[in-house]
Amino acid sequence: MSWSWSYAWSCLPNLLRGMLITAEVTALGSVIALVAGLFWAILVLSGVPGVAHLARLIVDFVRGTPLVVQVFFFYYALPSIGISGGPFVIGVFSLGLYGSAYMAEVYRAGIVNLPRGQWEAAKVLRLPPVWQWIDVVIPQVFRAVLPALGNNIVVMLKYTPVLSTITVTELLTAGLDLGAESYRYLEPLTLAGVAFIVITIPCVLALRVLERRLARGAA
Known about the structure:
The structure is a single chain. The chain is mainly α. The protein has helices at residues 5-44, 51-64, 67-77, 87-112, 116-124, 129-159, 171-182, 186-218. The protein is flat, with a radius of gyration of 21 Å. It starts with a helix and ends with a helix. The mean pLDDT is 89.
């Protein structure tokens, strides 16, 4: 089977729609993962009896179970107790929760490795505990762990095809659907692979620019 440019061009509209869904799921899931990951990390390091252990248990459980199992649980099991959502919402939430467990470990390492002098400086300034985190800890930790956070976002992008199992028509599913209709998989799947790279490269470049800006701001 040879490559057909005319068929490849005809695939683009459907692939672009799938590409948009993939980008949306990744972006929204990443926001959830970044915020929830920081929340889990703070709870794990809080030292509050029970709370820290529960947060640690949640993080370990989410990291220890496959994403597809979590997606199936949220999509098929939760409606039985009255909690339901569409495939897109469930997909975003599942991806965000899964990513948050890995983000939590990145944040935790950054917080633990923050120089002790920074904590002491915050106390000398008599900042309330909440503002110690907001003004001193989080900005420095975020700057230090940004490359690792960015890597996790790229990994989340690569996990989006799992959402096809609950009928989210993301990029790979769009390619497979086109192949099933025409019995030609070469063009749609090749273009789908290229599209993943097209999404990834701007993300990586944006993270590098942000990293340089944060480094200049800290200098």
